[in-house]
Amino acid sequence: MTGPEAGILLDRVSKTFGPQVALAGVDLEIEPGSYVAVMGANGSGKSTLLKVIAGLAAPTRGSVRVAGVDMRRAGSRLRAMVGYVGHASMLYPDLTARENLTFYAKLFGLRDPAPAVEEAVAAFDVERALDRQVRTLSRGTKQRVTLARALLHQPKVVLLDEPYTGLDEAAAVTLTTLLDDLHTPGRILLVTLHDVARAMSGPGRLVVLSAGRVALDVPLDGRGVDVAETYHSLLRSEVAS
Amino acid sequence: MSLIGSALVIAGKDLRLESKTRDVVGSAGLFGLLVIVVASFAFPTWGDGREGVAAGVLWIAFAFAALLGLGRSFAIEKEEDCLEGLLVSPAPAEAIFLGKLVANVVFTAAIEIVILPVFVVLLSLRPSDVAILVAAAFLGTLGLLTVGTLFAAMAVNTRGRESILPLLVMPVSVPVMIAAVKATQSALGGQGAGDVFPWMLLMLGYDVLFLMVALATFPQVTEE
């Protein structure tokens, strides 16, 4: 059922919060091994899209399937395939980075949390922050611990919601390198971004949302449409309307 | 990982957090002690019927201490969206509820273990049945915290959650509070409390019923 190949299929997914429409009939198919950038203006539905894929928000209509299984019926095995980073760190500020990571490693059912934590902190170069309280960490270091937290269990689907927010340029360059390293065969990397230049330097596909709908879905292979110009004209038309 | 295993991991995390911050046991424990000390001066410590007053005072202290702790229970998950971190994990939503409940029971029990002897000494009481007193404290606290943990999760996303939480919890917990006061009065040797058995049975039934209701509804409570 939840084999090693974890594709994502969204079938006419809508999500409303009272009168507010966050997603309005999104169809999307993402193959295993894809690195996809999701862009759009504020309120276009990017965060909601990631939340419905992560199983944090139930679609009002339509279905989200990961590895062929409806996320509304996702069991623990399927949720263990997903790593999610939202706007906040999901780290307990009064615990150390090690205590946070060990807690999440246990929660994800890792039999031996200590080696998994050591491996994750080495991958994200946060060894020196390991025994410091999270509330004392810089934004960049905290973001790296956050990524380590989301990837401790080696998920097949990685969902990152605006991971560059608040990072200085040096930390952003480091994050870009980390994301490139995360892009491995069989793993889906879905990242929401605001900066079109970042979308052009890594992801292989761009999905642009506008008012909860897919307004643009193109490969980023350097051929075909001028993606930057198309994206900016979409934003301009949205502002004008 | 099993439901119980996940719940214990979550409870263990809350206990570790509390051991560092002392947010719940410190403030709620001091508040509970203050209620007992003030009551020992305000109410007579001799004469007929004092066990009934004493039982009421004890449960006021327990209830307010529990409510202070409950307010903090999900507030720590709200900061940095940690609740989302729990919800995207393989742990079932029911394990989150059970983990929080276990942690709340441990915090409140720790406070009660301190308050109870002080209460007995300051109000010059001679409990006739310590086992019933402890059992009543456990069953009453469990009922209060089961309802309180569920409502704390509901209230965490509302504005003014600290004031909303008691408004939600108190009306629903009236039956278990009455039973707890009556059973405690009986354990303290009070006259007119009647047979303690029906009150204990009422608390047990309340606890089981609301535990089932909470486990059945908690997944919906946490869903966006």
Structure characterization notes:
The complex is a heterodimer of chains A (241) and B (224). Chain A is an alpha/beta fold and 241 residues long. Chain A has helices at residues 46-54, 76-79, 97-107, 113-123, 139-151, 169-182, 196-199, 227-240; strands spanning 8-17, 20-30, 35-39, 61-66, 69-70, 82-85, 157-161, 188-192, 205-210, 213-219. Chain A has eight helices and ten strands. In chain A, the strands form two sheets. Chain A has a six-stranded mixed sheet with strand order 6-7-8-3-9-10, with helices on both faces. A four-stranded antiparallel sheet of chain A has the order 2-1-4-5, covered by helices on one side. With 224 residues, chain B is an all-alpha fold. Chain B is built from nine helices and no strands. Chain B has helices at 3-21, 23-42, 50-78, 82-87, 93-122, 130-155, 161-172, 174-187, 196-221. The chains are: A alpha/beta (241), B mainly alpha (224). Chain A binds chain B through residues 17, 51, 54-58, 75-77, 79-80, 82, 84, 86-95, 99, 103-104, 106-109, 149, and chain B through 1, 6, 9-10, 13, 16-17, 20-21, 76, 79-82, 84-92, 223-224.
Overview features:
heterodimer, A: 241 residues, alpha/beta, six-stranded mixed β-sheet, four-stranded antiparallel β-sheet, 8 helices, B: 224 residues, mainly alpha, 9 helices
